[in-house]
């Protein structure tokens, strides 16, 4: 038996909140509040059931556990205390119990409210198949309003409408938007508004405006008063329409998947075909290789704006520059070909791409730097197919940050990936997602990052739109060119400029690109200069073909720079090697654009439309191909080019022919300034001479011999003027070798050869009589002997000069033959030269004899093919040395020794040991014994020869027998400064001799 007694408040204040008494199996519980009597009774019953298991069955009907039973079970009611300090803690426990009891009551009310709402909807006939109009006609319920308020507030917060969300929360004060349970229904939380819209409204049939024929009568009330049967039919039709829409969507998705598979198969087949073409022809083109990609159409449309010549040139340029199209076998794109199906925007593929993208962000930082290159293809595919622009941008940034110091292979892989991405997407995405990261790295402090940016920009040029090419890309390349970058960066920048000139259509940008080209030519790096001269200049010249004004600007800029360099050289007393090298480069540049100038003249000749049957087959225009522009089929087909060239050569070969504007421009604006310019350049550097000769030789090769005779020869007045009227500059400047080798030497008829011989004899005679510097004529003869088809031409000229009555001409002939002896090899040449030198060595004039010493030394030292020639040369050398002092004056002897000192280190050691040093020691003893006051000029010359020979390795017998004795004799006749140098040489040679003896 359980008895519950309610105590009054006074007793509770005195004895505490709970009292628990136990007597003979009965449990007395005293609760502190009368309002809690029922709950206390329930608790006591439960405790009794636990204490007395036998009474459980009897009490089961009355002791149904509530939601608050577990709460009371957690209370420790055995602790009864009268202490006042426990009062607040126990009060809190009771309040918690009341709160849980209230929550249980609210939960019960929710269940009843949900049941009542469902019954009300069923009674009103609301079903899931009702049409949208019926939903609108029904009045909104309170719980529906609370659900909509919650979803609207959630939508505002997700889309960053924070101020609107705060305002909305203030207006709806009776609802807590942070807790879904505050809505008041025991229902699952619905998806957000966007999902409800996509899965609900998108699947509903879209209402279409009703149309009627204006000529037909309609019932005015047919659409406003439907019967009940029509309403039922409308509902059934709506259900059927939903089913058909679902089936249609499924079929469309299946169709899209099949189209993606078909596109992947086509891409693989085309990749295989492209690889085979690349192996066969070795001439890939980016635009052709990517014709099946989405971006290929844009590139193709852009190329329609560019001339066919530029398109053809770009194909050839792509063969010479690093490839901007990835090799799939190297990066494994074919292994990920199935991922190209993810470019569709279905829910499944988008979800897979998003998951892969998230995995990449956590995977890549944990990968080794050496292994990151392997993941680039996957990153590329995810960037292509990812639906979120922000994520794509982050993936691109991560891709560029994979390597802090990328080496050549890593940069090549990154360029291939960027090109692959650009081929799959449109130009807008290329510019906003890939190109932007290149722009961020052009000013990087790391050389590898700047190089990578330049290489990527160069590869992306075919995939970028025209406005960006003409603005941003030019600015990027200009900044990188003018910022004094290293050679490693400038080379891809120049390559990018070369590609860029094939796509720009804005003529106003030609000046900017021309300035970049001239800046690249002034670089100290020979690699950069070579790329600028071969690729960049060719692209500019092809671009200039589309507008004659651009061609004028290009030619004028080159000639203006050459004029500045020549004027600077004329003002300087000492010739700088840097200016000579720059002039050499500009001559090569002018020679490189000769094919463009030729095509500009040929295509506009007035005889191009005349009938020239049979003439094409009789002409053979074989031009040696040296650069990209030399292949004339670049400009038109072979048959058309043959026809145009035939008409041009026939017209220009006539002595009196009509001119036309392009020919006048070429003659007056190109050839005339060049002819005037070379007259100012002295023949000092042989490389400049060869460049100038090569430039004019290309004019003759392209324009033909008729043009050379009638147009080029009159520009050089060297031959036309009489000897008295000729200026000295004509025989000391580049005019002489250019006119001799490039103009007269290009004419191959017999009369032209005789004309060349006469001119050379006259030039040698004039130089000798006027006592002009002989370097120009020597270099001229050396050049023409190497390029002219008739090898005996020079020797025929020299035979006449050797027998000339003037000793000055014979002396010059000896110097020329000595120079030829140092350059030419071969038994026939050596025999011819030796015969002429031996004849001059026996000349009566000492001045003539001493000019043959250098040539005789070369023959005696290096003639291995004919021992007889070497013996004759040694005999003549011994005679000449024995005549000093004697018939050869001291002045002539000093001049001879100075020439020997210049080439003495090149003599063979055997020749020095057995002939030259003994003769030199004997000559030193004779000069010392003579003790003539004129010997003051011979001893310094002898000292120079000993200084030149001090670097050679002699045998110990030669050092002790000839070199040291001769130098000791010479020391006593030298001044203090030279004597000190001679003493140091003696000490060094004695040390070498001691080392030989000890070893």
Automatic annotation (TrEMBL):
Residues 241-268 form a coiled coil. InterPro entries: ARM-like, ARM-type_fold, LisH, RELCH. PANTHER family: RAB11-BINDING PROTEIN RELCH. One of its GO terms (biological process) is intracellular cholesterol transport. This is Uncharacterized protein. The keyword Coiled coil applies. GO terms for cellular component: recycling endosome; trans-Golgi network. The keyword Coiled coil applies. SUPFAM superfamilies: ARM repeat (SSF48371). Keywords: Coiled coil.
């Amino acid at each position: 038996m359980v008895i519950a007694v309610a105590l009054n408040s006074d007793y509770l204040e005195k004895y505490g909140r709970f009292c628990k008494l136990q007597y003979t199996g009965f449990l007395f519980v005293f609760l502190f509040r009368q309002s809690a009597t029922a709950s206390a009774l329930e608790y006591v019953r439960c405790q009794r059931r636990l204490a007395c298991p036998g009474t459980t069955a009897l009490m089961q009907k009355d002791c149904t556990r509530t939601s608050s039973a577990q709460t009371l079970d957690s209370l420790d009611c055995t602790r009864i205390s009268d202490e006042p300090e426990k009062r607040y803690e126990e009060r809190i426990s009771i309040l918690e119990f009341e709160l849980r009891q209230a929550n249980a009551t609210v939960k019960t009310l929710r269940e009843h409210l949900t049941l009542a709402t469902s019954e009300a909807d069923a009674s009103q006939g609301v079903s899931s198949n009702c049409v949208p109009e019926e939903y609108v006609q029904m009045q909104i319920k309170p719980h529906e309003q609370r659900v909509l308020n919650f979803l609207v507030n959630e939508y505002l917060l997700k889309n960053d409408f924070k101020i609107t969300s705060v305002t909305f929360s203030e207006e709806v004060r009776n609802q807590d938007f942070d807790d879904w349970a505050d809505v008041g229904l025991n229902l699952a939380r619905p998806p957000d508004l966007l999902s409800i819209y996509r899965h609900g409204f998108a699947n509903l049939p879209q209402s279409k405006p009703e149309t009627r024929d204006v000529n037909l009568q309609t019932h005015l009330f047919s659409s406003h008063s439907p019967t009940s049967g029509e309403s039922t039919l409308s509902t059934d039709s709506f259900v059927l329409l939903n089913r058909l829409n679902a089936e249609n969507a499924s079929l469309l998705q299946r169709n899209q998947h099949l189209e993606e598979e078909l596109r992947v198969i086509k891409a693989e087949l085309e990749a295989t075909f492209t690889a085979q073409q690349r192996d066969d022809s070795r001439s890939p083109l980016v635009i052709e290789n990517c014709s099946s990609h989405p971006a290929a159409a844009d590139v193709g449309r852009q190329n329609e704006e560019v001339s066919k010549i530029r398109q053809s040139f770009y194909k050839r340029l792509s063969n010479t520059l690093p490839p901007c199209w990835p090799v799939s076998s190297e990066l494994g794109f074919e292994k990920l070909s199935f991922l190209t199906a993810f470019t569709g925007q279905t829910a499944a593929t988008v979800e897979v791409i998003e998951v892969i993208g998230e995995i990449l962000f956590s995977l890549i930082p944990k990968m080794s730097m050496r292994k990151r290159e392997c993941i680039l293809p996957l990153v590329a595919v995810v960037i292509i197919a990812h639906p979120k622009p922000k994520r794509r941008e982050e993936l691109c940034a991560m891709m560029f940050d994979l390597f802090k110091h990328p080496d050549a292979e890593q940069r090549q892989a990154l360029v291939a990936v960027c090109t692959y991405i650009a081929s799959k997407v449109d130009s807008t995405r290329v510019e906003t997602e890939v190109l932007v990261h290149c722009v961020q790295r052009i000013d990087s402090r790391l050389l590898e990052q700047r190089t990578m940016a330049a290489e990527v920009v160069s590869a992306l040029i075919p995939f970028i739109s025209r406005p960006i090419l003409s603005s941003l890309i030019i600015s990027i390349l200009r900044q990188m060119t003018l910022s004094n970058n290293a050679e490693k960066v400038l080379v891809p920048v120049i390559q990018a400029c070369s590609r860029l000139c094939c796509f720009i259509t804005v003529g106003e940008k030609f000046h900017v690109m021309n300035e970049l080209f001239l800046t690249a030519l002034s670089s100290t790096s020979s690699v950069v200069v070579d790329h600028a001269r071969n690729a960049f200049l060719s692209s500019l010249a092809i671009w200039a073909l589309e507008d004659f004004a651009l061609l004028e600007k290009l030619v004028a800029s080159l000639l203006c720079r050459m004029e500045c360099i020549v004027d600077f050289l004329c003002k300087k007393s000492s010739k700088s090697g840097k200016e000579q090298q720059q002039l050499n480069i500009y001559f090569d540049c002018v020679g490189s654009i000769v094919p463009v100038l030729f095509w500009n003249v040929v295509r506009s000749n007035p005889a191009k439309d005349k009938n020239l049957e049979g003439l094409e087959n009789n002409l053979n225009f074989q031009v040696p191909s040296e650069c990209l522009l030399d292949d004339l089929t670049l400009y038109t087909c072979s048959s058309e080019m043959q026809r145009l060239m035939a008409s041009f050569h026939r017209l220009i070969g006539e002595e009196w022919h009509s001119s036309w504007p392009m020919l006048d421009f070429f003659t007056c604006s190109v050839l005339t300034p060049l002819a005037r310019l070379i007259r100012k350049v002295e023949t000092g550097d042989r490389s400049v001479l060869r460049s100038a000769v090569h430039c004019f030789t290309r004019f003759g090769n392209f324009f033909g011999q008729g043009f050379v005779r009638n147009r080029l020869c009159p520009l050089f007045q060297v031959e036309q003027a009489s000897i008295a009227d000729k200026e000295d500059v004509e025989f000391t400047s580049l005019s002489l070798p250019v006119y001799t080798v490039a103009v007269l030497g290009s004419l191959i008829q017999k009369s032209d050869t005789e004309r060349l011989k006469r001119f050379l004899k006259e030039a040698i005679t004039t130089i000798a009589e006027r006592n002009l510097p002989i370097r120009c004529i020597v270099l001229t003869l050396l050049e023409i002997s190497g390029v002219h088809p008739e090898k005996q031409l020079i020797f025929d000229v020299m035979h006449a000069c050797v027998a000339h009555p003037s000793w000055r001409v014979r002396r010059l002939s000896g110097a020329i033959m000595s120079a030829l002896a140092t350059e030419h090899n071969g038994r026939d040449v050596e025999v011819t030269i030796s015969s002429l030198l031996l004849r001059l060595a026996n000349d009566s004039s000492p001045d003539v004899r001493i000019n043959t010493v250098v040539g005789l030394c070369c023959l005696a030292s290096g003639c291995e093919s004919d021992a007889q020639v070497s013996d004759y040369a040694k005999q003549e050398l011994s005679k000449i040395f024995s005549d000093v002092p004697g018939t050869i004056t001291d002045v002539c002897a000093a001049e001879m020794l100075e020439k020997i000192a210049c080439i003495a280190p090149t003599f063979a050691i055997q020749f020095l040991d057995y002939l030259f040093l003994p003769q030199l020691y004997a000559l030193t003893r004779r000069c010392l014994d003579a003790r003539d006051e004129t010997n003051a000029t011979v001893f310094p010359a002898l000292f120079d020869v000993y200084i030149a020979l001090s670097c050679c390795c002699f045998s110990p017998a030669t050092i002790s027998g000839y070199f040291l004795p001769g130098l000791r004799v010479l020391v006593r006749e030298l001044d203090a400064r030279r004597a000190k140098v001679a003493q140091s040489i003696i000490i060094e040679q004695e040390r070498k001799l001691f080392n030989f003896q000890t070893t």
